[in-house]
Amino acid sequence: MEIPLLDLKVQHDAIQHEVLAALAEVFESQVFIGGPKVLELERKIADLCGCRFAVGASSGTDALLNCMMSLDIGPGDEVITSPFSFFASAGAIARTGARPVFVDIDPRTFNMDPDKLGAAITRRTRAIMPVHLFGQVCDMDPILAVAGAHGLAVVEDSAQSISATYRGLRAGSMGTAGCFSFFPSKNLGGIGDGGMIVTNDEALFERLVTMRNHGAKPKYFHRFVGGNFRLDPVQAAVLLVKLQYLDSWSGKRRANALYYDERFRGSAVETPHVLPQCVSVFNQYVIRAHDRDRLREHLTHSRIGSEIYYPVPLHLQECFRPLGGRAGDLPHAEQACREVLALPVYPELTGEMRAYVADQVLLVAGKGEGVAYEGADRSRSAAAVH
Q1: Do 133 and 254 fall within a single domain?
Q2: Can you name the residues that pair with 286 across neighbouring β-strands?
Q3: Is residue 34 included in any domain, yes or no?
Q4: Is the link from the previous residue into 310 a cis peptide, with omega within 30 of 0?
Q5: Residue 1 included in any domain
Q6: Ordered DSSP codes for 50-68
Q7: Strands annotated E in 134-260
Q8: 318 and 360: one domain?
Q9: Taking a C-beta distance cutoff of 8 angstroms, is the pair 285, 342 a contact?
């Protein structure tokens, strides 16, 4: 049996007639910049998130960058974010000339630890960028409280967590703005790069729309130095098809996560921890294992796909060396990088496939001591609260 980390072909096979029909509609229209497909997707994503406005973007990265630029964040400013994330989170901050400031993670959820925020704020701090990692929203109430007390913008990096909820509110809807990625591996993935920004701030919305088109309003009259951050109708058409299936696919991911939780219960495998106020969409199912690299080698030999998200924390990346980060500064993020491993959790996994994955994980990592970190609690399964 061969089980990839993600199988996009099996997803496509089930909906290919709808996808091809949607693409044919775009080709027939010959509208390849903007147009009704993009507007329809923006409206539907805004509705999904419970927000007034949505702005398509050329990628999740460009969605974050547009937000930073539209909030006029630049040289001399600081933005607080997580060191345990895909590079785009900190990269979008740095590209404006601002300084990314990293705070350590909650070792249970892998998300930003709100208790670390206060000590990181300086007179230069302009915004907080919480990252809703692996499909679970951060603990937003204390983050928003800190932001409100200091007059800071909150840009939610929701790239991995579209439709996830926190106290019934959707990812991306609680801060100043929320940013999504439609990279093909996401729960709602396109056939290339794409992204979206949601907000309830009308003035910010207007600036985001202008900024994504080289800062021009009207055409050829440039208010700002913006960029080409537009979402194209080809991506929008495919995403409109897939959006109909998002809730079903997320439910199947949760079912697969719950199966793994039950199989790994009582073993040395640390399963994902989902806060009781959250509903995760499990863009990734990430376990901890002391001997992670040996486990991954075994899974590879057993023809099971896996991935390390992420092998190096952002504060120790070479390009951020001038920021002065050192090993030991953010111990929970650094420990996570040594121990995490993502397993296949995509909706089309069969019962036989997920049983094989669990069997092989337990064969190598099922015995011995579990991972130890401050606040570890093995009493809760990741998906049982759903």
Answers
A1: no
A2: 342
A3: yes
A4: yes
A5: no
A6: T-SEEEEESSHHHHHHHHH
A7: 153-157, 165-166, 169-170, 177-181, 195-199
A8: yes
A9: yes
Please write the tens of the pLDDT for every residue from 53-98. 999 999 999 999 999 999 999 999 999 999 999 999 999 999 999 9
CATH number for the domain spanning 153: value is: 3.40.640.10
Single-letter code of the amino acid located at 67: C
Bridge partners of residue 152, in order along the sequence:
none
Report yes or no: 70 and 179 within 8 Å, Cβ to Cβ.
no
CA count, 13 A, side-chain hemisphere, 122: 11
Nearest of 324, 347, 314 to residue 89 by alpha carbon: 314
| pTM greater than the 0.85 cutoff | yes
341 alpha carbon, distance to own chain's centre? 16
Quote the CA–CA distance of 90 and 339 in Å, as a whole number: 22
State which of 187, 220, 243 marks the end of a domain.
Answer: 243
**Residue 287 and residue 195: Cα distance in Å, rounded?**
27
Angle between helical axes of 246-264 and 351-365 (0-180°, round to 10): 40
Q: Token match 């793994």: residue? A: 260
Residue linked to tokens 């496939």: 353
Question: Is 149 in the same domain as 255?
Answer: no
For 193-217, the pLDDT digits (tens) are 999 999 999 999 999 999 999 999 9
Boundary residue ending a domain (185, 211, 243): 243
Q: Are residues 142 and 280 in the same domain?
A: no
Same domain (yes/no): 308, 324: yes
Expressed as residue numbers, the domain containing 262 is 246-365
